[in-house]
Amino acid sequence: MAKRVNPASTLVPVFYRLAAGKKKNEGIMMMKLTSSDEAKRLYQAAASSNALEVNKTLAAKPSSKDVKELLREMLTLIIFERNVEALKTLYEAAVIFDLELTPGKSMMDYVFDEFVGRPEPGLFSLMEYMAFRCNPTATILRLKSYVQRKDWDPEQLASLGKWIVAGAKQPLLTTLEVATFFKTMADQFVVEKQRYLDIRDYFSNLALQLLSDIESDHLAAMILDTADARGRTPLMMAVQTKNTFFQ
Questions:
Q1: Among 17, 74, 133, 145, whose CB has the most other CB atoms within 10 angstroms?
Q2: Bridge partners (DSSP) listed for residue 100
Q3: Looking at residue 18, what is its pLDDT?
Q4: Whether 196 contacts 155, CB under 8 Å
């Protein structure tokens, strides 16, 4: 007789089961058994690009705890379906990907954890969209911690860097920050040192291109001296990181 599943039980992240050696289809079946009907309906709304329904459902929840629990279940469905369109709908419904669903663990962290355990193209596409929409500095800090947990392909990290820049509100500052990240990677991983330095140079050149595309010298000077929320300016970052492309 099949074991009964308590639908009210806490949802255990399915990727933990996969890490224990279960096949993907077994994990999906378990996920379908443990996910609430409401989470499934919300996922279907997101997969159908119905941002209004997603927003309405989340707004009706009585507490932030209930919102986070529902999002956590829904995110598990998105991860297993590798559904970028559903992720886009969440963003359109004003869901913040840096939101912590559980203490110290954001939506992006859940996706990154899954990719580290199962480096598949579909999961990487979710990561790229997360990198595009999340806070650039926070995303780079996450990458610094995750690079210690798997052997990354430098080109994968370069792709994430491009998405980070593409979604940045201050692209010049963010491009320099990404360039600095790859200089750090070159220092840490000697085997891939030259590849990481080449990527660093790519982003440094991109920063110069962004600056040269500004037709007004006065406006360019203002942008170089415009600080972010942490008080950093592009000029300050170039000097502090000794980016020779700006000397």
A1: 74
A2: 106
A3: 34
A4: no
